[in-house]
From TrEMBL, chain A:
<protein>
    <recommendedName>
        <fullName>Cytochrome c oxidase subunit 1</fullName>
        <ecNumber>7.1.1.9</ecNumber>
    </recommendedName>
</protein>
<feature type="transmembrane region" description="Helical">
    <location>
        <begin position="438"/>
        <end position="459"/>
    </location>
</feature>
<dbReference type="Pfam" id="PF00115">
    <property type="entry name" value="COX1"/>
</dbReference>
<dbReference type="GO" id="GO:0022904">
    <property type="term" value="P:respiratory electron transport chain"/>
</dbReference>
<dbReference type="GO" id="GO:0006119">
    <property type="term" value="P:oxidative phosphorylation"/>
</dbReference>
<keyword id="KW-1278">Translocase</keyword>
<keyword id="KW-0186">Copper</keyword>
<dbReference type="InterPro" id="IPR014241">
    <property type="entry name" value="Cyt_c_oxidase_su1_bac"/>
</dbReference>
<dbReference type="GO" id="GO:0005886">
    <property type="term" value="C:plasma membrane"/>
</dbReference>
UniProtKB/TrEMBL annotation, chain B:
<protein>
    <recommendedName>
        <fullName>Cytochrome c oxidase subunit 2</fullName>
        <ecNumber>7.1.1.9</ecNumber>
    </recommendedName>
</protein>
<dbReference type="GO" id="GO:0020037">
    <property type="term" value="F:heme binding"/>
</dbReference>
<comment type="function">
    <text>Subunits I and II form the functional core of the enzyme complex. Electrons originating in cytochrome c are transferred via heme a and Cu(A) to the binuclear center formed by heme a3 and Cu(B).</text>
</comment>
<keyword id="KW-0408">Iron</keyword>
<feature type="domain" description="Cytochrome c">
    <location>
        <begin position="246"/>
        <end position="337"/>
    </location>
</feature>
<dbReference type="InterPro" id="IPR034236">
    <property type="entry name" value="CuRO_CcO_Caa3_II"/>
</dbReference>
<feature type="transmembrane region" description="Helical">
    <location>
        <begin position="89"/>
        <end position="111"/>
    </location>
</feature>
<dbReference type="InterPro" id="IPR045187">
    <property type="entry name" value="CcO_II"/>
</dbReference>
<dbReference type="InterPro" id="IPR011759">
    <property type="entry name" value="Cyt_c_oxidase_su2_TM_dom"/>
</dbReference>
Amino acid sequence: MATQTPVPAAIDQTTETAPRRLVFEVLQDWISTTDHKKIGMLYIGYSLVFLVIAGFEAVLMRIQLAFPNNHAVSPQAFNRLFTMHGTTMVFFVGMPILFGFGNYLVPLMIGARDMAFPRLNAFSFWISAFGGLLLYFSYIGGDGMYGAGSAPDVGWWAYAPLTAHAFSPGHSTDYWTLAVFLSGIGSVGTALNIVTTIISMRCPGMTMNRLPLLAWLYLSMSLLTFVAVGPLSAAQIMLMLDRYLGSHFFDAQAGGSAVLWMHFFWIFGHPEVYVLVMPAFGFASEIIPVFSRKAIFGYTAMVAASIGICFVSLSVWAHHMFTVGLGPAGNAFFTLSTMAIGVPTGIKIFNWLATIWGGKVHFTTAMLFAVAFLFQFMLAGLTGIMLSVAPLDWQLGGSYFVVAHFHFVLVGAILFMIFAAFYYWYPKMTGRLLNEKIGKWHFWIFLIGFHLCFDLMHIPGMLGMPRRIYTYEADRGWFLLNFLVSTGAGIQTIGTLIFVYNMVWSYFKGEIAGPDPWDAWTLEWATASPPPAYNFATTPSVASRRPLWDLKHPEDTDGQYE
Amino acid sequence: MPIHPVSTGLAFAVTSDFLQSPTSTFAPAGTPAHSVVGLSWLVYGITGGIFLVVGGLLVYALFRFRHRPSSPNADQEPAQVYGSNQIELSWTVIPILITVMLFLATTRVIFSTEHAGKPPEALDVTVIGHQFWWEYRYPKLGIVTANELHVPVSDPKHPTPTYLTMSSADTDHSFWIPRLAGKMDLIPNKVNTMWIDPETAGLYLGQCAQYCGTQHAKMLLRVYADTPEQFAAWVAHQQQTASQSPDAVEGKAVFEHNACISCHTVAGTVANGRFGPDLTHLASRDTFASGAVPLSRENLRTFVDDPSHFKPGVLMPPMHLNEHDLDLVTSYLVTLK
């Protein structure tokens, strides 16, 4: 990397010396803030708390499943654990952490001073945060089938009619419904904000054709959020009507349709996977080029593939329903549409590979996580192709094979890319680099734990082990694999603790980052670390996709190749 | 079942290798399962090939193009390449071709399984899922039973498949015997069908594959594929009403004077409840509580005393019988051969 970095004019060179403030003042500042960076960090911090909680729930489940006929937790507690783990990870970790990074990065990368609607931004965060607290309050306040103090136990997709009053009396299911509904309101608010910000607040010179890929992917993700969250929210309202006002949308006992709920849920649920993975694509599309020291290969194809995924992902939902009895024509259609989404996804992987090709790859911790992401996301995609084959899904759907497959997406791809994003942008957010040595320990330990856990987890599914069982028979041949999977979960826990330690240690003792520690090319590196509240002292203007490349290489600017 | 988890677990790890799992999808014993395995090798082959090629290129690129601090031009940026339409086109078209090929192969299997002609010799069974057990009704044979499904073995030359018509009495369930066929959901207010044709006699295991409530884990499936003679004998036996053993008159009286009859049927007696499993020939089964407990006098007694001992969350309430009545009812149940 070049050692001499020209200082962009946008960096404010004056130094502020603010007096020390009282704790209450700091608190008041964070609670009432409408600064996109602070809201972004609130989102991220809040998600990290829930990541630890939901991770702990996963560890409890793995302890229970380490041995056949184990009694570590009761069946009732286990059912609550997987419901809470799934709901938390999707709605209160995945969505908010990615919205947090989006909030922080999108305005900086497009040269804006804030999001389009700062107060809506704060509202969206706090309503989502309230949803998460409501969900966990159910452990104290939600009397369910088994008396007071029970969390929801209907599974994260809450299939009807298990959610009907007859099968889920008490209020635990209501906590789930309301928490998810509130999270949906927050998600739509933030998505609206991101779309508006990207469409109307780009700095001079930043045409859509020069938009950083991360911003393109956040745009696609936000558009998809609009479409996906609507049906989910509608279904939650219908479920509440069923439970309290005597309607019969999903109440099969009174002629309602359980399959209707499945359609509503999965027309949300499958686009949701892409809502979660597209920001990860965005991180990869920024981090891989910088550490390969090359421009992204096939920018236009990458944008087209993102939009393509956006559209195709709206027509694949019923691949979650191959065993529901859709009939051969329905099964064939959803097989084809699901396989088709592999094409734009493949284009993305090939373009990242071509970006690395001919570059000079620097294996920083962020890049290591990104490289692992490439392999793991490819594997997740290939097991996805297997599951898109309806007859294979008749065998493997609903089994641990599926659990392994989607954890490859959610952990192997998305969480790995989130870790990469932390190593890459933490210096921008705090002004200090995360420690690289601790980071490599974090990477390797987490990688080993991940593969021990989720590679082997495919096999019990192929051997007939269904998901969501609190225990299993000893004669099925599942024990050894489950034991190793649980060991892997323990190793990942150690890796995560190292990461938390690194975050805290580096906050106080990390190396000072400076504005542009990675010799990168996008606008967030053209301001101080951490950036001042107004982001840029003067509004930047750009002439290509990589404004800082142009600045550093005036003899060979990017714009001439667009 | 106070089984020590560590010792049993380790014992089974040694004795029962996972290669001999009784529920392996790789050991098909019926036409639908065979066609899935056949298709799966094609899918595994193609996806494995893609992984090797792309993964190999990735490993090569990462090694070949790593940053070398010692090289003379280490500080220079590499040549910037922005893309190539020809290359983009090729890695768009090739995956499309693979997709079309896979789709066509898949569609064949979908239609051959779901649109298979039903031979006149086929046996019809109605399967009803309950929290947390299976009800089996043989409408043409006049048999109602629970949890242990008996079907004839199907000789490929003269196939006698069993057609299952499925629905649910309460929440969603899923019927999955990996060695015989893929799963099919049982959904209230919806009727699904599937068929199985076990090619060798024996016991096939599985379990409910759609989360259905607290005891989803112990909603086990047992399918007995009988030889024609065995099956005929089983049918003849099941068509009889319950045995009226003179040894169990007192126990029968206790059974019939308690709430047992509100939920259970014993054919030929006043017990005609429909909520729980039919007990007419309970003692002819190998297991009870949906395959979760081996059938024995001792286990039955424990279960009647406290059903949640074996299956926490089971819908059968404890009957609070005194020790004497408990013995009598157990004595009656074991006569229901």
